[in-house]
Amino acid sequence: MSPKTESNYRQLLPYIRPQWQNIVRGFIGIVGYVFATLALIYLVQKLSIPFSEGDVIAIAQLAGILGAIFLLRGFFQSVQDIYMVKAALQVAFNLRKRVYGHLQRLSLGYFETAKAGDLSYRVTEDVDRVGEAVHKFLHDFIPCALQLIAIPIYMVYLSWQLTLATLTIMPVMLVLIAWFGEKLQKYSRRSQNQVSDLSAILTEIFSGIRIVQAFAAEAYEIARFSKEAEVAMKAKYSTERLKAIQIPIIGFLQALSFLILLFFAAWQISAGSLTVGKFFSYLSGAALLIDPIGHITSNYNLFKEAEASVDRVFELLAIKPAVEEQFDALTLPRVSGKVEFRQVNFAYKPGEPIIDNISLLAEPGEVIALVGSSGAGKTTFVNLIPRFYDSQAGEILIDDIKIRDVTLNSLRRQIGIVPQETTMFSGTIAQNIAFGQSEFDMAAVEEAAKIANAHQFISNLPDGYYTVVGERGVNLSGGQRQRIAIARAVLLNPRILILDEATSALDAESESLVQNALERVMEGRTVFVIAHRLSTVRKCDRILVLEKGQIVESGTHEELLALKRRYAEFFAKQFS
Ligand SMILES: Nc1ncnc2c1ncn2[C@@H]1O[C@H](COP(=O)(O)OP(=O)(O)OP(=O)(O)O)[C@@H](O)[C@H]1O
Fold first, then answer.
1. What is the value of pTM for the model shown?
2. Which compartment or compartments is the protein found in (predicted)?
3. Which of 138, 308, 317, 500 lies 20 to 30 angstroms, CA to CA, from 215?
4. pLDDT 10s digits, 155-186
5. Ligand 1 center to 544 CA (angstroms)
């Protein structure tokens, strides 16, 4: 995945900033929490006096105040929890929406090389990890850091000598934490990439499960998956093993500072320069530090691990769509359907032209068939019209307007596409016909289905138009799916229609229903059809024979047959 972006959390700021209100509220909770904590330490020191004097009433009073402060501390903790989690979840939500929106805008060419599983992993898991890191930062890291500042200040106030003794180990600890963090980041990136590769394999296999089973390749696929899963496990194991080594080392250093503290305090008390009360208060402060230190260490690890996810998400956001709308793009008005290619050139890779200087004028309502051997460039040719790709030279015009000058939305809404293989999205049949419209007129959907010869079979389904179809429309036959695709195009009522005739054979009845529906939908529209059927080419106004990206012959079926050249050859091979 390219391109590589700068690796840091600063890129998250535009997502965090709008949450300032929640963060400020959470921060008030944090400050309250820290002050309540300091008050607790202070009161513990006070407690030592009535204890030493056996003053039960004073002890009871202080205990009462302690209880009240505990309650208050709990309240502030809840405030902090609620607002910080709200802010973090909102950040993740907005980031996810942005990434998904960005993906939708990327050009078709990008998706032909990207792995679907990897993309979905980035939108789901990686964004979750980023959200978790933001949550930990706001909710854990900030209060712990504040405690780590406030409590030692108080400890210095109590006894700077003791504090100095306790903190001797600190630099070693910090260096170690940073070292482990760097390593963790590296391991985590490897592990995330590996899991995302696994998810890519899964998506690929589940969408191609028919082929896997048809080729009895289950054992092969299981072995391939296990191998990848093992690499993922090992990558994760490296991360966890590192953490397992780090935790006891840091724990030992903590214990060591505690021992130094005890030893130093005993010496000071015996020398008379420290009171037992002060020592207890100091000790409670030191005890209160253990928790934040632990949290900061684990947070730091988490931040380093999540940095890999931040990178993976922002890498995606940095990819620019190959086909971009001009900033001052016009809305294409309702067109009559005149399509013109002016010396159009296109190549997927530089130096390998697929469309080679093609010029063509299609009049409104003209039906044009594209024929040619596999790889001749037929699909590429039609993909240029809705700007799935942009030509490198030349212009395509619709009703004399350059398609580069108009918005993609207004262009594509006037071009209907009936592909070879119809994708069904999860939802009802009606939603599938009115695809892309959140509100639609049921009568219009039915009308479209009637034109597409689909009304009959839809009415026979248990819930009619409200029958839910699977995400890949598994419960519909090939011919039925094609007719749904035709109904989809009819409902759009486009002036221009692109048709990629299915090569797969349908049974005779289904075939004639599809054919009949196509004829109806082609009527009165400018049609480009990648033709595989004799009945289609016969009826077309013009047939273009494509070869190596060039139009080598053009004319009606009869004219081209009479030429006895490429088309006649092709016809003999393909249709006879
Ligand atoms: N996304 C792509 N990236 C790189 N090369 C591509 C891409 N799509 C198609 N090609 C190549 O461009 C050439 C033309 O492909 P195209 O699909 O346009 O041909 P076609 O005439 O529609 O073939 P078919 O009848 O087999 O579908 C082929 O050599 C193909 O390998």
1. 0.76
2. Cell membrane
3. 500
4. 888 888 888 887 787 788 888 888 888 888 88
5. 17
